[in-house]
């Protein structure tokens, strides 16, 4: 046993290898890609199956589903405010808004609010869709760029122009006063008109003058006729008195003559 162990150790030290070994060989590729003959290619192209097209296009059969974009809540609020502003205001002035310090803007708002005129800022994306379907569609050319509106439930054109005169950064473009669209010069001319009370007084004075003239014309002929009759009566009464006086004088002269003849 000891000899066998020594022999085994000696063989392992000298690099002994076993007589049976397993060797794995790779399989050689015998089939390579080969181009198809051109005649066969033609035949395959001619005999290729073409599916028939449907009588109705597929895009006509399947409905097109458009995604509904929900409107923002803030946009709904602004659109409702625009509708209320145009409905409740008799004077709507559109101005070009240039850069102005915040202190001057607050001072202008305070001065306008004293006359019940309010400053409104609305984006053009909200105002223009409303104007395009309303009776104020002719105001669309004014809403270009940065703009603001001066609105009031009363017509205060003269006060508005007097305040805007001190703010050169705010330029008046046009206005809608009492459902009438006016330009800048039209607003100026409108502000020079007298107030409604003065116009009503003038109308009442004109109507009363016409009535008094009509009454005077109707009374002119009877009064003139009465004056003529009075003058005629006076003339007749004066003529009768003169004839009676002359007759009395004649009888007084004839009396003494008759007495002398009788003697």
Report on this model:
With 263 residues, the protein is α+β, with helices and mostly antiparallel strands. The chain is 56% helix and 11% strand. The protein is built from 9 helices and 5 strands, in the order ααααβαβαβαββαα. It has helices at 2-13, 38-46, 58-61, 73-88, 102-114, 124-132, 157-164, 184-191, 196-262; strands at residues 91-97, 118-120, 147-152, 170-177, 180-183. The protein has a 5-stranded antiparallel sheet with strand order 2-3-1-4-5. Strand 4 (170-177) and strand 5 (180-183) form a beta hairpin. The N and C termini lie far apart (243 Å). Mean pLDDT is 79; it is low at 1-7 and 250-263.
Shape: elongated
State the distance separating the first and last CA atoms: 243 Å
Rg (CA only): 60 Å
What order do the SSEs take from the amino end to the carboxyl end, as H and E?
HHHHEHEHEHEEHH
Q: Regions with pLDDT < 50 over 5+ consecutive residues?
A: 1-7, 250-263
Describe the secondary-structure layout.
Blueprint lengths: L1 H12 L24 H9 L11 H4 L11 H16 L2 E7 L4 H13 L3 E3 L3 H9 L14 E6 L4 H8 L5 E8 L2 E4 H8 L4 H67 L1
Antiparallel strand pairs: 1-3, 1-4, 2-3, 4-5
């Amino acid at each position: 046993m000891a000899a066998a162990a020594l022999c085994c150790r000696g063989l392992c030290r000298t690099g002994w290898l076993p007589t049976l070994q397993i060797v794995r060989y790779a399989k050689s590729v015998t089939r390579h890609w080969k181009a198809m003959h051109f005649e066969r290619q033609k035949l395959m192209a001619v005999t290729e199956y073409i599916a028939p097209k449907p009588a109705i296009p597929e895009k006509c059969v399947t409905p097109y589903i458009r995604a509904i974009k929900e409107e923002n809540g803030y946009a709904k609020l602004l659109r409702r405010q625009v509708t209320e502003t145009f409905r409740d205001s008799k004077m709507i002035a559109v101005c070009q808004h240039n850069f102005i310090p915040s202190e001057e803007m607050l001072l202008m708002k305070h001065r306008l609010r004293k006359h019940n005129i309010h400053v409104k800022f609305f984006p053009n994306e909200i105002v223009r869709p409303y104007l395009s379907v309303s009776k104020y569609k002719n105001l669309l050319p004014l809403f270009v760029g940065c703009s603001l509106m001066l609105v009031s439930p009363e017509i205060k054109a003269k006060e508005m122009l007097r305040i805007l005169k001190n703010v050169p950064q705010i330029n008046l473009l046009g206005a809608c006063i009492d459902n009438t669209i006016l330009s800048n010069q039209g607003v100026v001319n409108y502000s020079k008109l007298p107030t409604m009370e003065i116009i009503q007084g003038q109308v009442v004075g004109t109507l009363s003058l016409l009535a008094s003239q009509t009454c005077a014309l109707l009374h002119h002929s009877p009064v003139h006729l009465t004056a003529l009759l009075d003058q005629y009566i006076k003339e007749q009464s004066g003529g009768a008195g003169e004839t009676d006086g002359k007759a009395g004088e004649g009888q007084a002269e004839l009396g003494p003559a008759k007495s002398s003849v009788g003697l």
